[in-house]
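Summary of Year 1 activities. Much of the first year was spent building the evaluation harness for sequence design. The harness presents a backbone, in tokenized form, and records the residue chosen at every position. We chose the following record to illustrate the format because it has been used consistently in internal testing since the harness was completed.
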């Protein structure tokens, strides 16, 4: 018999994260936010992919599988150590200003991982989590800017990706207007989702212009896409800014609720837990958009 007990975790909304523009001040040539004139003199050897996230993944004995990093074999998914992801593209001031965004991704990965672990218990309980979706989107922007500016992701030709200028604006201010269609999409499950216990990253770009259009992200088999453009068709990438993801196992229900600053959330996505599968994920080979 299953008991349905729900507990709530991390219900609070996060504080706003804002990078002010100054009339005068220091602009560090290596910092990608130097145009705001608010730099410190020191550049940080920070990870492009948050420390917080990397530590959580490592704690769960998971690998970080990345597709599309310039120094990895082309078209192959490769597991990498966290030391390889250090970049020097933000000054210490701006790095510290943006660091609160990191907790959103940590919260999400922890929630997905905990629900997964809970559902492997003989008598699982339902657990509810809350994730700041707006911070999550800006964390993805920060990660993308870090990976592109440090040259860790590049076009196959070796040329750098081009980023739309709106990306910096959206990262610096929670009040910036998001262009139509931009933002985080979560794919609705089709068939079985295999929990591959990994983190995957897949940049997609326009091969003619070199412009980065999307960053695919996958945690424990849940596929998300961050779009820097309008999807065509509208539903091609799943639900934009879903209100919740629900995980069902028999009578037990767990959920991850997202908060969005504009209060306009998309529909709920439901995943049903079918069983435990410990083999390799059959969809491990990812393909690039040409
Ligand atoms: Zn700076």
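For this record, the design step produced the sequence shown next.
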């Amino acid at each position: 018999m299953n008991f349905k007990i729900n507990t709530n975790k991390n219900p609070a909304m996060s504080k706003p994260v804002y990078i002010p523009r100054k009339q005068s001040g220091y602009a560090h040539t290596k910092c990608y936010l130097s145009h705001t004139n608010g730099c410190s003199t020191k550049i940080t050897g920070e990870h492009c992919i948050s420390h917080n996230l990397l530590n959580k993944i490592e704690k769960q004995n998971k690998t970080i599988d990345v597709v599309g990093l310039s120094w990895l074999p082309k078209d192959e998914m490769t597991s990498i150590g966290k030391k390889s992801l250090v970049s020097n593209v933000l000054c210490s001031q701006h790095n510290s200003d943006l660091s609160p965004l990191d907790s959103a991704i940590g919260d999400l990965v922890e929630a997905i991982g905990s629900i997964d672990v809970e559902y492997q218990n003989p008598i699982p309980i339902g657990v509810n989590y809350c994730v700041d979706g707006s911070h999550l989107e800006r964390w993805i922007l920060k990660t993308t800017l870090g990976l592109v500016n440090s040259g860790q992701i590049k076009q196959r030709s070796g040329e750098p990706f081009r980023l739309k200028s709106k990306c910096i604006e959206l990262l610096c201010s929670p009040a910036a207007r998001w262009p139509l269609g931009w933002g985080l999409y979560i794919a609705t499950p089709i068939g079985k989702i295999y929990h591959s216990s990994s983190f995957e990253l897949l940049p997609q770009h326009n091969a003619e212009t070199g412009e980065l259009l999307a960053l695919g992200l996958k945690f424990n088999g849940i596929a998300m896409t961050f779009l820097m453009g309008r999807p065509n068709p509208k539903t091609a990438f799943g639900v934009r800014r879903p209100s919740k993801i629900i995980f069902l196992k028999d009578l037990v229900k767990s959920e991850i609720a997202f908060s969005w600053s504009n209060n306009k959330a998309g529909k709920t996505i439901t995943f049903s837990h079918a069983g435990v599968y410990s083999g390799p994920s059959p969809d491990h080979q990812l393909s690039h958009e040409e």
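The radius of gyration is 19 Å. Quantitative recovery figures across the full test set are reported in Table 2.
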